[in-house]
Amino acid sequence: MSTAVAEPQHVPSGSQVNYLNATYGIKSWLLTTDHKRIALLYLASITLMFFVGGTAAVLMRFHLIEPQGALVQPETYNKLFSIHGIVMVFFFLVPSIPATLGNFLVPLMIGARDLAFPRINLLSWYIYITGAALVLYAILTGGVDTGWTFYTPYSSTYSHTHVIAAAVGIFITGFSSILTGLNFIVTIHKMRAPGMTWFRMPLFLWAMYATSVIFILGTPVIAITLFLLGLERILHVGIFDPAIGGDPLLFQHLFWFYSHPAVYIMILPGMGVISELVTCFSKKRIFGYSFVAFSSMAIAIISFLVWGHHMFVTGQSIYTGLVFSVLSFLVAIPSAVKVFNWTATLYKGSISYDAPMLYALGFIGLFTMGGLTGLFLASLATDVHLNGTYFIVAHFHYIMVGGAVMAYLGGIHFWWPKITGRLYPDLWARIAAVIIFFGFNLTFFPQFMLGYLGMPRRYAVYPAEFQVLNVMSSAGASILGIGYLIPLIYLIWSMRYGPIAGPNPWGAKGLEWQTPSPPPTENFEEIPVVTEEPYNYPGTEVPARG
Amino acid sequence: MAAHSRLHDPHAAEVAHQFEDPEQQREADSLGMWTFLVTEIMFFGALFASYVIYRSLYPAAFETGSHLLEVKFGATNTAVLICSSLTMVLAIYCAQTGKSKSAIITFLVLTMLLGAAFIGIKLHFEWFHDYAEGLVPGINFNLAKYGSGVELFMVFYFFMTGLHALHMVIGLGILTVLVVMTARGRFSPRYYAPLDISGLYWHFVDIIWIFLFPLLYLIGGRYTHGGH
Q: What is the value of ipTM here, to two decimals?
């Protein structure tokens, strides 16, 4: 069996054999069932997709420098924002932290040798690659112009672009999310090391668990929805097209039933990362462990009850809107609990400003802004004014880029020494983090103002009075783009030339830091026994719970 | 999907490297299948929800559409599937209590025959017939005769029963693998997890049909005189 390739049974104690050099050759990677190698396969794939989606964003921002449009035809502009949205949401943000850091860390953090189903894990990567290939095919052969939301009846009847190829790609990729979520749930339930009780788990794992719940409950619904969309487009039956008896609102209900929870698929893992970073770089126990843990679960559950806030102005009844508005306000509570608890963790901590911590602090600020502006949009009256404007664009980019991407980069920088066994140049990393923070704000803060002033999103042209703010935003995007390229360069550089990291360069708690860097294929020579609370940093120990 | 990982494992009777002991492996496999079935419920759930919405939008057309289906075939298939669940359970019971290989294989093959009978009846007596009547949306639906509401019903009928039949076909594939594994003597009262979790899957597919049958075949007060 080929699967045996990457699995040496005994890693001799104290040797240099690790998961990276245990076997060589392209086959040993493409047929690996090692969760750490699969994490790296995902890392390479989603990085590629990130730069595909990023390129579309750069072209859009360049186009918007001039009111009448500086670069492309309006039709092409429609394709650019559609490609940007589809690629970034379904092929970067959704898999980002779970498929890379989650795959790498879940078994390490609970003290297991691998995920419960290693081959299913590899299968999920191949499924992802298949879906991504289809979407890239759709892009290269002419693109899609429906937006990432595929609203009907435009997508099912009127669009003349590669809707089917893109939808099938997303449909297929959904199964990789489902399989990853299934694997994490079973692994976290059944594979914890002796002594690793639920309340001794790092908070990253609670976040992964909550995310997995959304994966398995939400993803099937978007799959069926896209399938119905495809049916209508191919067979011309009236499922969603009102002209032939369908109900376009149903599409939006089904779409957002997945896609709103999907927002929490993107941000919950980031919150898990931040809990790890804030504790490590304050050298302090987390403030209110169980509140942070349960707030992840609360967010996952409430996230399924708020989808109608995307439809306040699309014709659902005012009473439905009211209920969805209230529920949307509710989801702010567990999110705020997390922010307050991270802040309280910082209080009187021994804070060090290493690069991962800069990302974490950036996350807390930007996520707070993204979250608070979300409340504007959850209020019925203000939403009528702001809906469909750049205010929305700014709001969700503060969550998805200021939140999710910052956390992703913070996590990559935090665990990079564990993943590769090497350190990256610290100064460059801090510089890049600061550049990204400022570039981000310059890009998206003006968009809040543009939206408030009434500039609609998704238009290739705009009135001349909005030009100053648009130029600011485009200038910020250039800075942001450079900020993203710098880590790409020094992280790749560090894989070969970086100083040896050692098992625990940050002095962090957690099982993953007790095994060599990079870890051996079997993760631990002996399955560890856990005897203490997480984040039990010296000097801040708290008596056991209860 | 958990089933697949175990089914294709050449060392199924041993403990895979990531597990500490057979008990942990068995529990993980079982939970994996249950989790997978939850995703399946959401899959069909989206369809059931859409069905309910359109039925409430077009009650008359959905009743007309339902009356175009042959209850006797749907009812026969319901009975066939329930029997197949019984034979599946008996196969597992035989493995659990250490009965002979041939007993397990007999019940597995019976399950497969019943499953195949279901698909045969569906295909031959129902779908072919529907095609002849011009009831297949997108292919030959007679819009002038039946109208767009009935077409919508037929979309859901074919999509839901088609998705269900696809699950049956996958189930037959799983059962084939189980027969081979049994013949090779893989199972014992100590180890029969693949049978157990494949059984979960098979029962789930049955249960889906138990909901599909009344929703598709029995609506519209067909047997109550003067029904609405």
A: 0.90
